[in-house]
Write a structure and sequence with these properties.
By secondary structure, the chain is mostly helical. It has a 3-stranded antiparallel beta sheet with strand order 1-2-3. The chain is globular and about 70 Å long. The protein starts with a helix and ends in a 26-residue tail after the last helix. The mean pLDDT is 93. The site of acetyl coenzyme *A (ACO) has 19 residues, from loops.
Length: 401
Amino acid sequence: IDIKALRGATDGVTTIDPGFKNTGSCTSAITFLNGEEGILRYRGYAIEDLAEKASFLEVAYLLIFGELPTSDQLDKFHNDIKAQSHVDEDVKKILDGFPKSAHPMGVLSSLTSALIAFNPSSVNVDSEEDMYKAIVNIMGKFPVLVAWALRKRTGQPLDYGDDNLGYVENILKMMFKKPNSEYKHNQVVVDALDKLLILHADHEQNCSTSTVRIVGSSHAGLFASLSAGINALWGPLHGGANQAVLEMLEAIKEDGGDTKKYMAKAKDKEDPFRLMGFGHRVYKNFDPRARIIKKAADEVLSDLGVEDPILEIAKGLEKEALNDPYFVDRKLYPNVDFYSGIIYRAMGIPVEMFTVMFALGRLPGWIAQWKEMRENKEPIGRPRQVYVGETHREFKEVSKR
Ligand code: ACO
């Protein structure tokens, strides 16, 4: 495709495509997705292989820089991140201003935005070096904000990272270490979180990623673009679905576990209820991430010795949906969020934090997409519209209306 030639063209026909269902906003070499066949690859590598064999930090490097790192490259990346993982003490004052009841996604997006004031050099990224600095800066600070959002919610004192720990272990330590006691990580939990973060790391031009790219296209800085992306992710039709799924499964359990009743509600066009965690804009076959997560949920729960009746309700709903013409005809399959909440819950993560965990996983994808957009020197995103309002009207003074 001759993108340069297309860029100059502003005299074409304006097409209407609600929800951009058939519009490509950019060319991208990051994530390949085939929704008909249920294929997902990052930079050409199958999601199944990455989830099984790679670490989250390796995948982050792959997404952002295009190649799997050598061990030296990975060490340097990790060390550069660690060197930037200190959040200014004054940011805590902003955190203190939030009520404990504040949703952690609101806290996370606000604090990410606030980081701009504390790191103004992250805004101008005219050289490769500036861009790298902004990237390791946010890769270092974001997990701290995530942990703070959790601790604010649970009323725990803040904890600092430990440079001797791996990236994911350190996140868990900052989230869960109790005051005056030693933190011992559980390898099952570390591996499960690593896998979940990999599965969420990128998904081409979804709502939050498109938001990051479009905000970044005005040359707003990386942190501002990410903050906008976090807010886009928050909605229940997007990343907020993982919280909504668990709340739905809880409600079904409380209501006696009658899955058929909720299947009927989901199919009733007069009822706004939707089966959360089902359906996807692009996947019209099984979401490959859901397949991996379902298996992981079984393993993690059994490794941790957790018996969660909600997993049975989830499996029951899935079985019914796969045999129901309403869901089959509309190609509605479980998506990535259908089982992830069950694992997060088994790890002891509160339900309001689920979408924050999604944001933590999506961070490298957002960064990679923003970087690609800037490197490709994409023009400012500015869709057109088809105007359907009043044509010209005469103005009347307020006294004559
Ligand atoms: N439950 C019941 N019916 C559904 C569901 C559902 N979860 N999802 C879609 N449908 C129906 C719609 O009512 C519509 O039916 P109709 O053709 O009779 O009008 C048809 O399936 C197509 O649905 P659309 O909303 O047009 O599909 P769209 O691609 O716009 O939406 C979306 C995709 C938002 C994911 C939708 O399936 C949904 O709301 N799912 C539940 C929320 C969810 O799980 N979101 C997470 C998505 S994954 C992620 O962001 C990480």
